[in-house]
Amino acid sequence: MPRIQPPALRSASPLLRQLLIVTRDSSAAANELRWLKAHARHRAVQNGKSWQTLLRAYCAWRGRHVPLQYILGSEYFGDLELRCRKGVLIPRQDTASITTHLAHLISSSPHLRSQPNLKILDLCTGTGCIPLLLHHLLSSSIPVHSIGLDIDLLALSLARSNLHLHSRSISPNSSLTFSRADVLAPSLPEDVIQTLGGRVDILTANPPYISPSSLRREAALSVARYEPRRALVPPAGDGEAGDVFYPAVLRHAVAMKAKGVMLEVGDAEQAVTVATLAKGMFGGRVEIWRDVPSGPEEEMEGFTVRGEGNVRAVFCCDDQRF
Fold first, then answer.
1. CATH T-level assignment (fold) for domain 85-317
2. What's the rounded Cα separation, in Å, for the pair 51 and 314?
3. What per-residue confidence (pLDDT) applies to 301?
4. What pTM did the predictor assign?
5. What angle do CA 237, 223, 66 make, to 5 degrees?
6. Can you give the residue ranges of every domain in the chain?
7. Per-residue pLDDT tens for 167-186?
8. Does the structure show a pLDDT above 60 at 13?
């Protein structure tokens, strides 16, 4: 973590000083102050409070490491602005990057483009960010029918709110719904299976994948303190394993005859573990994606690694379809 020089702290305004403690960077702190000021002015008009009073409260919250997205109430995912709420995992631009790459692969596949209805299933959907962005990028040219599943009622409420916010991104010949389901259950709900006709073209998931010790040691304070543990760490009783969701997700992918599967992972070690599991359960082509998958290729533990940045996802597919 970068150190802040004492003169920088002394010369900063009281509000900026609170943000510097969190951002550790004067430029980032100045940007956050500008966004918080704009948000305070907007909220003041709505509730009749002084914007200066609101701004002081916002900066105090941020100084205690409350995520900026929870204070502002939104975050961009690709070029979609999505609502955020405490208790639901904040969408990340790294996830948006791999989702955009997946959309490019889909739109470049003659087989998938010729489907009368492209069916997508998103597990552990959270804000609904992945299916919403896929619809935004694809549904104007390909009819897309998607279901996002989550066990958390607060997440489902927020996903539906984001769907309403971006309903114009869903073309008239496409559909997106959100339903409750436990991904760790032996099978998906029967109504979901029937709605999708027992098969999907694409299955995506950003499941809880952080071990308890990694959350304590490595996660930023804003994540460890304020983002929902349930969306970060697999259920209690699984020890230090962060990988427990992946066998269940891949089992659902096989049962639903998915042609392509994108699974977000935490790091390179986990990616190799999940890729090995996917090769055994799913077969086909299995590769590892970095934050920007369209970059150069390399090999790691027998798997092709695509792109630049940190390791971000495992992708497996039927070679004849992609």
1. Rossmann fold (3.40.50)
2. 45
3. 95
4. 0.93
5. 135
6. 6-64, 85-317
7. 988 889 999 999 999 999 99
8. yes
Contacts of 238 (CB under 8 A, 6+ apart): 244
Distance in angstroms (rounded) separating the CA atoms of residues 99 and 76? 13
Structure-block tokens of residue 267? 């790091």
pLDDT cut 70: percent of the chain above it? 95
Answer for the pair 75, 84: CB distance below 8 angstroms, yes or no. yes
Cα–Cα distances (Å) from 81 to 85, 94, 227, in that order, read 13, 15, 19
Please give the structure tokens belonging to residue 275: 């890729």
Ramachandran assignment for 278, one of left (phi > 0), alpha (psi -120 to 50 degrees), beta (any other): alpha
Phi/psi of residue 119, each to 5°? -105, 130
- Structure tokens given for 135: 């619809």
**Three-state secondary structure readout of the chain:** CCCCCHHHHHHCCHHHHHHHHHHCCHHHHHHHHHHHHHHHHHHHHHHCCCHHHHHHHHHHHHHCCCCHHHHHCEEEECCEEEECCCCCCCCCHHHHHHHHHHHHHHHHCHHHHCCCCEEEEEECCCCCHHHHHHHHHHCCCCCEEEEEEECCHHHHHHHHHHHHHCHHHCCCCCEEEEEECCCCCCCCCHHHHHHCCCCCCEEEECCCCCCHHHHHHHCCHHHHHHCCHHHHCCCCCCCCCCCCHHHHHHHHHHHCCCCEEEEECCCHHHHHHHHHHHHHHCCCEEEEEEEEEEEEEEEECCEEEEEEEEEEEEEEECCCCC
- The answer for 62, left when phi > 0, alpha when psi is -120 to 50, beta otherwise, is alpha
